[in-house]
Amino acid sequence: MTVQQTHHANEPRATGTAVVEATGLRKTFRLDHREFVAVDNVSFDVLRGECLGLVGESGSGKTTVAKLLLGIERPDAGRITVNGRPRDHGVTKARERRRRARETQIVFQDPYTSLDPRQSAHQAVMEVLRLHFGELSGARREKRAGELLDSVGLDTRRRHALPINLSGGQRQRIGIARALAAEPDVIILDEAVSGLDVSIQAQVLNLLADLQAETGMSYIFISHDLSVIRQLADRVIVMRDGTIVERGQTAKVFDDPQHPYTQMLRAAAPRPGWRPERRAAESRPQAT
Ligand SMILES: Nc1ncnc2c1ncn2[C@@H]1O[C@H](COP(=O)(O)OP(=O)(O)OP(=O)(O)O)[C@@H](O)[C@H]1O
Fold this sequence. Notes:
Elements: E1 18-31, E2 34-47, E3 51-55, H1 62-70, E4 77-82, E5 85-86, H2 94-103, E6 104-107, H3 111-114, H4 121-132, H5 138-151, H6 156-159, H7 168-181, E7 186-190, H8 198-215, E8 218-223, H9 226-232, E9 235-240, E10 243-249, H10 250-255, H11 260-268, H12 276-283
Parallel strand pairs: 3-8, 3-9, 6-7, 7-8
Antiparallel strand pairs: 1-2, 1-4, 4-5, 9-10
This protein binds adenosine-5'-triphosphate (ATP).
Adenosine-5'-triphosphate binds near residues 56, 60, 61 and 62.
Pfam families: ABC_tran, oligo_HPY
InterPro entries: AAA+_ATPase, ABC_transp_ATP-bind, ABC_transporter-like_ATP-bd, ABC_transporter-like_CS, Oligopep_ABC_C, P-loop_NTPase, PhnK
Family: Belongs to the ABC transporter superfamily.
C-alpha cells in the first residue's frame, strides 16, 4: 500500500441525482493514416456528492474521457449532459464558457505546467473569483480567497510565493484551490496526486475528502493507482483499451474483481507490507 487510509473512505455521500450523464461515447484519433479508437461505447453517470473513480493503465482512455466531458475533444458518437444540458464541443461564447467552468473544473497531474509561473496562489485564486464572482466587492473576494487558501492549507508566506518556490504538493494545493474557487458541481482530478510523495499524497486525499464532505460536490477521480482510488471513490469504472471492462462499488470491485483485467491490475498493485526500500536494501551490496 503506498498511501495511508483516510478517515472518509467510501462513506456514502451521493444523493442519487445525476450531475453528469455520458452515453455511448466514442472517440477516434488518426495515427499514421490509420484510425485509432481511444474511447469506445463508454457510458456512465456521476451522482451529486459522489466520487467516481476511473482506473486503468496508461493509454486506456481515461484522459480522453475527461477531455470529452470538458468539451476539449469532440466525441465521434455519444452524448454528454451536465446538469441535464448537452455539452457540445466548440463553444466560443465567453458567457457559456464561464457557465461551464462553474459546472466542471479539472486538476491535472502536473500542477507546474497548468499554473501561470508569474502568479502566486493568491493571485491565481483571485483571478478565478474575479471571473466568476465579479458582483462581489473586492473585500469579499479577498476574504473568500483567504478562506480557500486556508482550506487547502497554504500558509500566508506560501500563498504569496511564486510556483517555482513551492513544492509539488503545495503547487497541487493551488490547483485544487483554484478549481474550488469556481464552486463547480464536479471536479475532475486527473492523476492529481500521482506525482506526490506518499505522505503528501495522503494529506491531499484527506483534504479532498474533507472538502467534498463540506461542499457536496462530485469528483471524477482518474488514476492508474488502485490504492488511491480505493480511498476516495464510492464507485469505480475500470477501463482497458478505451472500453469499460468492469464497474461497481469500489470495495466490491477491488475485493472481488470479476474481469481478468481487474484481477490483473489488483495482482500488480503494491499491497500493505510491500516495502520497496527493503527490497532495494536487500539487493544492495554490503558496505565493507
Ligand atoms: N490527440 C491525440 N491524438 C492521437 N492519439 C491520442 C490523442 N490523445 C490521446 N491519444 C491516444 O489515445 C489513447 C488513450 O489516451 P489517454 O490519454 O486517454 O489514456 P490514459 O488512460 O489517460 O493514459 P495516461 O494515464 O497515460 O494519461 C492513447 O493510446 C493515446 O496515445
